[in-house]
């Protein structure tokens, strides 16, 4: 009996790429909404609603939401996903981790920050400045996210970058309500300005100090508001 030397080569299915790409898009969109505080603590994130929004099946949505749950952004329940409850002790720990990681990370970005990235930092700061003058909280949040994303992009260690982003986002979900306070907004503006000036000088030591001071002020303000000091609202 003759044997064929031909081998069957199984080509990858091109359609297999679509769910992965779509899942990533959904992941980025939902995470962005969490960063901006557009998903409230009592709001349920339902896969079929997002699937209808993206005009897709529920599978890529489930993939995205499970990824967000694995990273601590969401918690799965019997009725969809919700934002996790983060206690004051959790916030203390998050700030502690950030103090250990962020000053060194942002200082490391000084040597590799491009002129384009410096320009993006300036644009984000000016956007925050305008938002502060207009008392536009949504734009303030957006500018803060853009500013952070820009310098994080310059951090060369990908694992460090993703770890910092995750901890910052978790704190942001809780702190976002405090940005209605004018004193908190002033801390954000002053912190961004100090970091920007240090980046313009490309001075890693100055950047490190500016970041640490920014974080300490933000933490102190958060807990002051939590304990009932709501002056300057």
Short summary of the structure?
With 233 residues, the protein is mainly α. It has nine helices and two strands.
Describe what this molecule looks like in 3D.
By secondary structure, the chain is mainly α. The chain folds into two domains: 16-82, Orthogonal Bundle (Arc Repressor Mutant, subunit A); 88-226, Up-down Bundle (Four Helix Bundle (Hemerythrin (Met), subunit A)). The chain contains nine helices and two strands. It has a two-stranded antiparallel ribbon with strand order 1-2. Strand 1 and strand 2 form a beta hairpin. Helix 4 runs antiparallel to helix 9 (204-226). The longest helix is centred in the C-terminal third of the chain and has 23 residues, at 204-226. The N and C termini lie far apart (89 Å). Mean pLDDT is 87; it is low at 8-19.
Question: What layout of secondary structure does this protein have?
Answer:
Layout: H1 17-35, H2 47-54, H3 58-70, E1 75-77, E2 80-82, H4 88-108, H5 115-134, H6 137-153, H7 158-175, H8 182-201, H9 204-226
Antiparallel strand pairs: 1-2
Secondary-structure element string: HHHEEHHHHHH
CATH topology assignment of the largest domain? Four Helix Bundle (Hemerythrin (Met), subunit A)
Classification by helices and strands: mainly alpha
Q: Reading side by side through the largest sheet, how are the strands ordered?
A: 1-2
Report how far the terminal alpha carbons are from each other: 89 Å
CATH architecture of the largest domain: Up-down Bundle
Q: Sketch the major β-sheet.
A: 2 strands, antiparallel
Write down the overall geometry.
globular
Q: In the CATH hierarchy, what is the class of the largest domain?
A: Mainly Alpha
The proportion of strand residues reads under 5%
**Helical residue percent band:** 55-70%
Please report the number of helical segments: 9
Count of discrete structural domains: 2
Radius of gyration: 21 Å
How confident overall, as mean pLDDT?
A: 87
How many extended strands?
2
Query: Any idea what the CATH superfamily of the largest domain is called?
Result: GntR ligand-binding domain-like
Low-confidence stretches: 8-19
């Amino acid at each position: 009996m003759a044997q064929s030397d031909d081998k069957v080569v199984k080509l990858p299915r091109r359609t297999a790429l679509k769910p992965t790409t779509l899942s990533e898009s959904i992941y980025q969109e939902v995470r962005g909404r969490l960063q901006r505080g557009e998903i409230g603590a009592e709001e349920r994130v339902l896969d079929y609603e997002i699937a209808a929004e993206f005009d897709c099946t529920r599978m890529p949505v489930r993939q995205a939401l499970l990824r967000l749950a694995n990273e601590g952004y969401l918690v799965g329940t019997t009725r969809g996903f919700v934002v996790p409850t983060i206690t004051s002790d959790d916030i203390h720990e998050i700030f502690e981790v950030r103090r250990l990681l962020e000053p060194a990370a942002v200082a490391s970005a000084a040597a590799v920050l491009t002129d384009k990235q410096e320009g993006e930092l300036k644009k984000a700061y000016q956007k925050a400045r305008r938002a502060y003058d207009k008392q536009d909280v949504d734009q303030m949040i957006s500018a803060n996210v853009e500013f952070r994303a820009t310098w994080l992009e310059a951090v060369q260690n990908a694992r460090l970058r993703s770890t910092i982003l995750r901890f910052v986002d978790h704190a942001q979900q809780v702190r976002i309500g405090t940005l209605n306070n004018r004193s908190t907004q002033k801390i954000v503006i002053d912190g961004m300005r100090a970091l920007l000036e240090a980046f313009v000088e490309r001075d890693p030591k100055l950047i490190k100090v500016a970041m640490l001071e920014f974080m300490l002020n933000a933490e102190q303000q958060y807990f002051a508001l939590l304990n009932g000091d709501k002056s300057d609202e």
